[in-house]
Amino acid sequence: MSKNIIVFIVLGFMTVLSCKKPVKEKQQKPNILLICIDDLRPELNTYGATHIHSPNIDNLAASGVQFNRHYVNAPSCGPSRFTLLTGVFGPQDNSALFKRAEKFNKDPNSVKPSMPEWFRKHGYTTVSVGKVSHHPGGRGGKLWNDSTKIEIPNAWDKHLMPVGEWETPVGTMHGLAHGEVRKKANEMAIFQSAVGTDMIYPDGLITKEGLKQLKTLASDNSKPFFLAIGLIKPHLPFGAPKKYMDLYDGIEFPEIQHPDKPEGITTWHKSGEFMKYNRWEKDPNEDNTFAQEIIKHYAACVSYADKHVGDILNQLKQIGADKNTIVILWGDHGWHLGEHAIWGKHSLFEESLHSPLIISYPNMDKSDSKTDAIVSTVDIFPTLCDLTGIETPDFVKGETLKPFIENPNKSGHAAIAYRANNHTIRTDTHRMTLHKNGFVELYDHTSKEKETKNVAEEKPELVEALKALIEEKIKPAH
């Protein structure tokens, strides 16, 4: 064999070797399943309310970490969801996200990416079903179905809201059984328990569509998904299939804590959202039998929502997606059931701001853990970045919760909230509310009086320190 031929063979062999690079299997980033529940206070079995039937949420908590002291940043749907979906503090009314959208439409560069947009930019398919932003389906207009008015531009590959018999998203928002929509609140019953399946109320449709989207997204192995499913109940009016009311036959509910209207200047209000419904001329602050009926119907709505949570989690497991999916269950704010003589949210008391937060993900170092660390909704965006290995944007105001997942005994951080230009801060031991006119409420949570006795005048140094902390934490909306 000639020398030239030998050289040619050797060179060819080396070329082949150089082309055979080791193939590394690409590790897909974890999926995200975010379950939002409207008006859900942390009155669940797993949170110690043994009279509540919530087995599916309880099971989720047993597989993850339950945050016992999670506080929202606003006691109303719109501004609370703004904080969840943007990672920053913002406008204090229900049109918060639409105001952001107006700025975006004028100059996209003037608005930082939302949480779903951030994950979309990092390779995720993003889908929302139901009430994730303030309007179910994420659109504006008179009937909340105008596709030219998007609540969160650039956020979702799909934002879906099945309407069924209720015909429009605005119809589903306050819908009762079999397509009944709210035309005049005073003509719609404050509560209802109709006989029928889960599909006779709008959340049945939301869950059905959510299961469909979950199956479709999980079948695409090329991209991870961010799926948000928003359930409406237990939002007013309190309507759920009768079988969920039947769960509470013979159940004794605890007495309402501190049921009296507070004295002095507070953020107490007249429960206008609640009182405008047809109450058959009854006032739960004066009629305890009626109050107990309301509380029981609220509980039925919680159990109805819990059933849908179970359906979603069962589907996740059945299709095998649970092995690579982070699950977050979040309540958008709390709800007064007669505490401080309030029925509803919209105050800056503990009951309006305290809501459930549960995080579970595959191969957690700890599960079935509960932490008493104080955390808030603004922390969720950076937490999801941390858990997925995606860069955390520098504009978010919260802190990752991963350290609390790894060490439930770790101390938390103060939680800020706002309403009507009043601000409140919750620490391990106190809540202070600073009114726009300078008046201060200070409550000692280590005392038996808790949020019924204002001790601001007794602790001026603490008041000044907490005022400074509020000023430090609250920044202008972007």
Automatic annotation (TrEMBL):
One of its Pfam families is: Sulfatase
Per its UniProt record, what InterPro entries does this chain match? Alkaline_phosphatase_core_sf, IDS, Sulfatase_CS, Sulfatase_N
For this chain, the family text in UniProt reads: Belongs to the sulfatase family.
> Keywords for this entry?
Calcium, Hydrolase, Metal-binding, Signal
Domain spans labelled Sulfatase N-terminal: 30-390
Q: Gene Ontology terms, cellular component aspect? A: cytoplasm
Task: Indicate what this protein is called per its UniProt record.
Answer: Sulfatase
User: Which cofactor names does the annotation list?
Assistant: Ca(2+)
Q: Which GO terms describe its molecular function?
A: iduronate-2-sulfatase activity; metal ion binding
